[in-house]
Amino acid sequence: MATEVRVPTLGESVTEATVATWYKKLGDAVAVDEMLCELETDKVTVEVPSPVAGTLTEIVAAEGQTVGVDALLAQIGAASATSAATAKISNDKSAKAEASVKEGKMTDVNVPTLGESVSEATVSTWFKKVGDMVAQDEMLCELETDKVSVEVPSPVAGVLTEIIAAEGETVSANAKLAVISEGATAPAAKVEKVEAAPAKSGKDVEDAPSAKKAMAEAGITRDQVQGSGRDGRVMKEDVAKASSAPAAAPAPVSVPRAPVPADDASREERVKMTKLRQTIARRLKESQNTAAMLTTYNEVDMSGIMELRNEYKDMFEKKHKVKLGFMSFFVKACTHALKEVPEVNAEIDGTDVVYKNYVHMGVAVGTPSGLVVPVVRDADQMGFAAIEKKITELGLRARDGKLSMAEMQGGSFTISNGGVYGSLMSSPILNPPQSGILGMHKIQDRPVVVKGQIVIRPMMYLALSYDHRVVDGKGAVTFLVRVKEALEDPRRLLMDL
Asked: Which CATH fold would you assign to the domain 201-243?
């Protein structure tokens, strides 16, 4: 006996819907509550589950067809022995061989907390395969967000029986990644396993029929609409939002590459940008587009710091178990200057300026994956030794990809040291929403005039990029001069001058 599948109640004042997508084909085996199709109304998207287990024997309403409430969508017949077996296989995503694995308690592996304002991640690498034995806390996979890489350990010891999110797939916070059979043991024989299906490409997503019609009527393209449906599918209401939104500034046109000769093309390698690199590119461009960015320069005689460092570095390291570098001097000099010119430590929030009575100092660090900016919190309350220890710790964690989200958020000012790579002068780009960033550069012996005499001194160019919307030229120059004075006479730092 066939079971009818009808349009469910669509909500108050909604009398019809459009069949957007069928997830099953005629003859497919279906399980109870498995999704059959998706309906689209002018307000919401509605998924239609199967009321029974069986075989889809008839599809009455095709994709794109408009149907009323309680209209017949499809019919499901009783499952045959063959279709029942097919349903079992289709619902077993890992195709695990139960006879080959001694089952235990099933434990889900979920996406860990990704950090404030981070809602999704991409599965970059699986270290284990279906059927592999895993120990508790052994790394299963690595996730990549737009800020950091996150390793996911196994919560229990057992056998990895199912991989739900394949490499390259984007997952939301707390989504299920895999299933582990707790306490199970894998046999000596090879365990049958099936690779997880690759993530769907955005090109395979079919937009709702009514959305296509609305886009044509509104004269807008697919690229101008942000889809809110399943897998980014564009719905009718998305088109309405895009049509009513104020016109945005035209996006920069991507210039296509010139034709490449075949012999050169064979020697090129095309690699997809990582999430981190994409975010770096986007944020830096946003900074240039949003802030009224300007850079002012000065130079500093480093001989005072170098002499002081040479005199005390051995005693400093012996007592504090950390080397005395130049960065702690720059952090201290900046914290003093920020107290005198607080607008450099502020940020714009709408029509307000937020002045911060603390200094969370961002220190830019180059890593194999790209530039990251860990934050030294309350740097204005720390001494030289505490600053050096924290910078060393954060630098090592950054290069190992072990920084947490919290360690890279909330900075109020940033220092970038291009000098470690040999840069003589550059204009650093702001780290939004901050209003200032100091660029350090290479120390180079140069002839300078001191008390009427030409002498050779170790000199460094300093660059302060600032947001001219909140920081005036006088404030920017004053800040840089105060940093220069503190560095050229380090005793001023000790005297709080």
From this structure: Dihydrolipoamide Transferase (4.10.320)
